Amino acid sequence: MTTADSLFSDSVPIAVDAMGGDHGPVETVAGAVQAARGGARVLLAGNPDLVEAELDRHDVRGLDVRVVPSRGVVGEQERPVRAFAAKPDASILVATRLVKEGEARAVVSMGSTGASIAAATMLLGTFNGIERGALGGPIIGCAPRTVVIDLGTSVDARPRQLADFAALGTVMARVILEVENPRVAVLSVGAEEGKGNRLVKETTAILKASGLNFVGNLEASDLPLGGAEVVVCDGFVGNVMIKLTEALGAALARDVRERLGRQGEELAERIYDLTNRIEAYGGGPLLGVRGAVIVGHGRSRAASIAKAIHTARMMVERRFVEKAEAEVARLRAAIGTESA
Amino acid sequence: MTTADSLFSDSVPIAVDAMGGDHGPVETVAGAVQAARGGARVLLAGNPDLVEAELDRHDVRGLDVRVVPSRGVVGEQERPVRAFAAKPDASILVATRLVKEGEARAVVSMGSTGASIAAATMLLGTFNGIERGALGGPIIGCAPRTVVIDLGTSVDARPRQLADFAALGTVMARVILEVENPRVAVLSVGAEEGKGNRLVKETTAILKASGLNFVGNLEASDLPLGGAEVVVCDGFVGNVMIKLTEALGAALARDVRERLGRQGEELAERIYDLTNRIEAYGGGPLLGVRGAVIVGHGRSRAASIAKAIHTARMMVERRFVEKAEAEVARLRAAIGTESA
Questions:
Q1: Model confidence over A214-238: pLDDT tens digits?
Q2: How far is the C-alpha of A234 from the C-alpha of A95, rounded, in Å?
Q3: What CA–CA distance (Å, rounded) separates A214 from B260?
Q4: Which residue has the higher pLDDT, A233 or A194?
Q5: B217 and B126 inside one domain
Q6: What's the pLDDT band for A340 if we cut at 50, 70, 90?
Q7: Which of A166, B219, B273, B301 is surrounded by the fewest CB atoms within 10 Å?
Q8: What is the pLDDT of residue B268?
Q9: pLDDT tens-digit series, residues A277-319
Q10: What is the pLDDT of residues B152-180, one digit of tens each?
Q11: Shortest alpha-carbon distance between residue B158 and chain A (Å)
């Protein structure tokens, strides 16, 4: 047990969707074992035969890793609600139900993002006035303490939703990234007030009255420079940004490899790592739901999955969900309405 | 005169806003001289004393470079229309007027983008049914034949505007980038039809009836892979993408320099160049206006400005504006309406 890990009390385990992701259950089980070696207690929701077979490949003596049987997996291309009806004991549902029933204190999944969000929304519920969870986090390694939110759960977001993102991002920056007084900016096409689209202008008016540390517009050109700790945007724009960042980094890393060969390997890896943060960190919290949920990157391998479990433990230990719900309630009071 | 340049007939010169950009008139004049050595005829609109002084620093014997006096410059932060009223002979107005009056066949400016667009819209006019010019072009060196449009002139764009962008981008890909049958895609958050925001869905319905080579949605992750030759998006999103790409490339290039020192210089330059295309090419055409207009990057230096002048000559020689206007008219007929 490392010093950092000894901070966790771990009275209740973390549930992991062992079947989710591009490399489940091989990498999810390996990641869970790694996390357990760091002191985590893990419940693996999955096909018992497959998961036990993977566990057999590791030395798990003395580790608290148990299997909870599930049947079926929700694929990336499936519509979650329809899939849930057909597979009521799918791994993501079993894992999320463990949290609902108090058997686990957080759920971690590398599987379908849509399914993770739908399961959390349905089984755990959202904060008062919030329709659906938001995804946010640092997307560029050069700005490791800048939370970009929303990364794709709400396209066609309304100004009040962006205000919610600002509150949720503020709590994430404060609690997870340990920034004392996070600066909140709205992503726009110019730094001056008044530059932007309708959404930016209407959001600006709300954020000014929000009691948050609102600093105005931020251009995408200032994003890698860490111009603010919370940058809010519509989920369409955030999703485009994270996918562009990831793909651009991957393309540049490929280019470095092609030109420098093995000599360029370390540099290529660094470029990839700086631009593929969610993959590196395994995933980020789903914000706005009544439970600790980590939505991971499908491509994640064992080390990243172990990091995601670590983040989940940290979220619980620091009472992230409670603080976020309180902050959203405070925001609602400040901007003078109870609902979106 | 190079072989490529000898393709141009150059009966009428190109107008250059000599005062615009971060480095005008030093670099604009140097760029014009370079272009003239390649066979271009150039009219430099600017403060005669300053421009003549710069010209004196070059050997211009036998070159067709002349000065057309202007008074004042429109700055990046000024509101164009107000600035035009105060400075009726500002360099961008003088340069654009030369095109209107048939003294020049194209205008090139590295100055305020807003002022270039406003001057072109006001003096040259836009195509039937188009309210304002659009900016588009390749933004990532890994996908050199992919035109992303719009890059920022129209935030809050409507579906019909995106259809116009598709037609304009198609002509740009065909005429400037020499792609025979450009694939047109709409930028979205998922590759499957039905994924996206309202704008994407409504644009999809129009593009299906457009007669263009429409291939559906394209995710930002496929952008560096050249998944289509024309990618349409709202100007807010396009502006975010180009600024993020430029800044990310600059940050990664900086990182390479810091880690590898002089050894990394060539690689750092390559990364910067792959991600800062508009700066490398000096600028791109303003699409949808009745005249050949190149809107440049403020940071451009002489070599890029010479390239921008070269692009302007190519636009004229290949009858770009006429072809674009015809394509937009054809689109309007296909989608069954005359106006936006």
A1: 999 999 999 999 999 999 999 999 9
A2: 29
A3: 38
A4: A233
A5: no
A6: very low
A7: B273
A8: 95
A9: 988 888 899 999 999 999 998 999 999 999 999 999 999 999 9
A10: 999 999 999 999 999 999 999 999 999 99
A11: 12
pLDDT of the residue at A158: 96
Note whether A95 and A153 are same-domain residues: no
Which among A244, A255, A256 has CB closest to B245? Answer: A244
The pLDDT tens digits of the residues spanning A91-149 come to 999 999 999 999 999 999 999 999 999 999 999 999 998 988 999 999 999 999 999 99
Q: Is B273 on the interface with A (CB under 8 A)?
A: no
pTM: 0.93
**Which chain B residues contact residue A187 at CB under 8 A?**
240
**Which sign, positive or negative, has the C-alpha torsion B22, A241, B289, B226?**
positive
Whose tokens are 């939110």? That residue is: A149
| B38 and B139 fall within a common domain | no
Q: Which domain holds residue B172?
A: 134-282
CB proximity B209 to A under 8 Å: no
Q: Considering the domain boundaries, does residue A326 fall inside one?
A: no
**Beta bridge partner(s), residue B136:** B149
| Residue found by looking up tokens 């202007």 in the block | B70
What pLDDT score does B323 carry? 96
Q: Are B71 and B89 in contact (CB under 8 A)?
A: yes
- Report the residue from B197, B235, B256 with minimal CB separation from A267: B256
* Mean pLDDT of all residues in A76-94: 95
* Chain A residues with CB-CB distance to B247 below 8 A: 220-225
Strand A134-137 and strand A283-287: the pairing is antiparallel
Say what angle helices B302-317 and B26-37 make with each other, to 10 degrees.
50
3-state secondary structure of B128: coil
Domains of chain A: total? 2
**Any domain includes A241:** yes
Nearest to A142 among B225, B251, B256 (CB): B251
Residues in chain B within 8 Å Cβ distance of A233: 240
Is B237–A236 a contact, with Cβ atoms under 8 angstroms apart? yes
The residue among A140, A217, A240 with the most chain B CBs within 10 A of its CB, best to mutate, is: A240
For residue A222, say if its preceding peptide bond is cis, omega within 30 degrees of 0: no
Which CATH number fits the domain that encloses residue B82? 3.40.718.10
